[in-house]
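call fold(seq) -> tokens
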Amino acid sequence: MIKGSNVALSDLSDSVGSVIVSLGWVSPSGEGDADVSVLLLDASGKVRSDSDFYFYNHPVAADGSVQLLGKVPTADGSEDRISFDLTAVPSEIDRIVIAASRYDGARFGELEDVRITLADAAGESLLRFAVDDADCVAAVIFGELYRRGEEWKFRAVGQGYETGLAGLAADFGVDVEDDAPSEAEETLDGAEGDAQTDAPGPAPIEEPARQATLEAIPAPRRPEGEIAEPKEPAVRPRTAKKKVTLPKTVKKTLAENDAWKQARLFPVSVLKSDRDREMRATSVLLAVMAQVPEFSRRLTAGFGAPAGRMETFTEVSLPHGDSPRRPDGVIRVERAGKLWTALVETKTNGNALKAEQVQAYMDIAARRGYEAVITLTNDVALEGTPLVDVKIDKRRKHKVALWHLSWAEVAYQAQMLIRHEGVGNAAHAWLLQELLHYLQHENSGCHGFQNMGPAWVPVRNGIDDETLCQGDARALEVVESWERLIRQVCLRLGGELGQKVLPVQRAKRGTDPKERRNRLADQLCLDGRLQAELRIDGTPGVLAVSADLRTGKLRTSIEIPAPEQGYPLSWAKRLVRRLAEAPADLHVETLVDSETGGPRGTLERLRPEPADLLPKDNGTKITGFRLSLLKSMGSGRGNAESGFIRSVDDAVHRFYTTVVVHLDAPTARRAPSKERAAAG
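ret:
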């Protein structure tokens, strides 16, 4: 689409009751990012109240009409996805504005390939609009969904705001909150019933990196005619529902000794076969989804499911030719008298999906008018590389979407809710805790990606004896397994931290994912290394991971920029002080603007003499510092103690917890007041 053009969604697809909108961009440095926001406007062109403004701290509409799904990695960057259930949008809403904003003085001109795409409920991409003229602005309206009679249309807008999100929000009637909101969270320990509902509005900012207020955090409005009562300065109004999370510290057990095992809602000791594990895992997951709406929406909104009453079933018999088929599960959601249905096929341990089986479920779903087939395994799907190939009969008017979830993603969503973001009541938190315990148990078979594949050993041997040639298909298999592993590492670390952790893909704009992987496979044949980068919210740089298959060493590292003010000796002393509890074998290297490179040494040697980090030539400019840890990598292809997968997971976790957490956080991302926001 071009700027200013519009199109009716019904002209593009028959399945637009719910749509997925994706905002994407490419950062050449791998560190640039933006936050998405959505505003629901009435006929006056204004929000009805500040609760019609959705952003990272107020991501879900109570009626399910809007849900910010967060970021997902793509071949050349990341996308922020938003689910819209257009059938649930209140009738008084005339227009939906979709925008994104940058922070801390950043502008959209620093990003490449800024675009918005829209897909229907079946996952089929319907339109794309590239924003090409947003160089000097801090916020952009990408597009808008608006009503025309009984149908919805999309308009490509591309309007920028130099004043950032504050200026954009003010134009649509959103009040800006000057002060940081008060805490409104309680743990599962202190919850003695359902959480209470307070004034409507977005949730408080809780992450340390988000202490400064968003440029346009809405404050709850008072109904017209209501007289404001005097408020004591120390009292802050609640702006969100209270949330229930797990306690930070575990209570002392009442058991006499460690041999006593706590009673569990979902026992795993009786599981003996793969079939038992698949049946139990499916039933456990679907039962929790039916009872915890916050969790089920997280898993199904991205698949086009509406927000409504959900029921789940297992081992349902459906006719198919001469013999009926039994999918592992069925999900049904009812809203406004309409049903959304998905068939579920699960696998545990290292069992792979069978193309014939998935094809049969796709055919059944098409004939019966179901909307989706969801596969759930320990494998991680890669963009442009389907786990199973199925044939779609394009002559059929009814479309069925094929979606995939990994068990690692299910565990990640449960962690985010019960450990960081909170759920509606204590019962929901307890159910998610039991689910997470089940998934993480060694006997569940739901441990995520856990095998580098049959090509792992031949490729390692080929690198050792220098017989691996470019173009070898086995090298490509290893590169794909490496990408799956890195995505899983991001999920696990993100679940522990409660922050976004995404793989950084440095590729040219428009690069095909398969072409990029082929290039990485050729590079593996040449230098014997697998490399990846992770971007973690709240850290001063990108965390790099390198596996050298020639030497059997894993390197984790991060580059931090030099401060803009002060003296080099002060920088070195401060860095060494910050790393007082870091491992003694941490390598520290000074980055300089010359080809010769800067000084380097272990932290153990530098602690008494931080000045050794300074170049001997006083005229050499220091640009930053690189911190690195080395460890031996596992040789096995699996997830055992001596396996490669376990060693990579452990290396990233150790580097973050012993090194990265001690570093200075990046400059505050949010201005604390309207005045500073407007100045930005």
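The CA atoms of residues 200 and 504 lie 37 Å apart.
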